[in-house]
Amino acid sequence: xxxxxxxxxxxxxxxxxxxxxxxxxxxxxxxxxxxxxxxxxxxxxxxxxxxxxxxxxxxxxxxxxxxxxxxxxxxxxxxxxxxxxxxxxxxxxxxxxxxxxxxxxxxxxxxxxxxxxxxxxxxxxxxxxxxxxxxxxxxxxxxxxxxxxxxxxxxxxxxxxxxxxxxxxxxxxxxxxxxxxxxxxxxxxxxxxxxxxxxxxxxxxxxxxxxxxxxxxxxxxxxxxxxxxxxxxxxxxxxxxxxxxxxxxxxxxxxxxxxxxxxxxxxxxxxxxxxxxxxxxxxxxxxxxxxxxxxxxxxxxxxxxxxxxxxxxxxxxxxxxxxxxxxxxxxxxxxxxxxxxxxxxxxx
Length: 348
Prior knowledge:
Blueprint: H1 6-10, H2 21-25, H3 30-33, E1 45-50, E2 55-57, E3 60-68, E4 74-81, E5 84-89, E6 93-99, E7 103-113, E8 118-127, E9 133-135, E10 145-147, E11 162-168, E12 177-182, E13 192-196, E14 207-216, E15 224-233, E16 236-245, E17 253-258, E18 263-270, E19 277-287, E20 293-300, E21 303-311, E22 314-315, E23 320-328, E24 336-347
Parallel strand pairs: 2-8
Antiparallel strand pairs: 1-3, 3-6, 4-5, 4-7, 7-8, 9-24, 10-13, 11-12, 12-24, 13-23, 14-19, 14-24, 15-16, 15-23, 16-17, 16-22, 17-18, 19-20, 20-21
């Protein structure tokens, strides 16, 4: 039972006595401020439609929420997980998939309006690994395929030398690294080579994580390094194409692809590759319920950033799940190698 009757609450508004949230907070607990006054402020506050409180999820959760204010339009919303702000959008609604470590998490979905009135909804989410499948040491598998012409824009690039050599002991973390090499001459600048491994496709996967280590001697000798998962089922093909731009127009940042129009989308998120060192890459993707492509997050050496971008899926009638590495040549088409180790694909 509420500690304030509707009549006593209504007295706060008689004679235009209401002057904003700060005044009300002195007399009514914050949890009642925008919910208990439903007769006067109908449905004001934050509404979280997904996930529900105490939901059990995998290693990520799709957060869907909206907010309203009786005073002015909503200016921004944030998601705070375990006392850390992890996502913000300048809008009155959000729909984003965020990774979660295993265990229980306290989530605050917050909103502010243009007059700085504050709203929030609190829930608990339990993250686990139920239904999760991990495929390990993919760089050591047989069956890797490469092509150079298909790696050009529109799939019509020049043919240049390239190779993939598995089971390298140096440099290596475990004696099983693979060397990916792109060659060429100044006569064929900006030529690329795509390397991919065909895995057994998963019939129900919607979440994907590509995790691996890469060793680069001189990052300035290539235009970019691309890291991908190609996934398709049910007539929709997701091009989870991500690249770290090393010497191009957006050097030092991540780009993701709107593959349907064959165009890289600049994120502005930093991507720094250490020379003569192992760099740890973790990329997370999500296949939306309508089959479209969602980029969740990118991480290089622990520097993780949320991408939160959606693009259409391709209309392709195939069934596949292929991790890939692509090397993009620079203006001099320098010979270039990258070593990959401990590559895993996790899906659920």
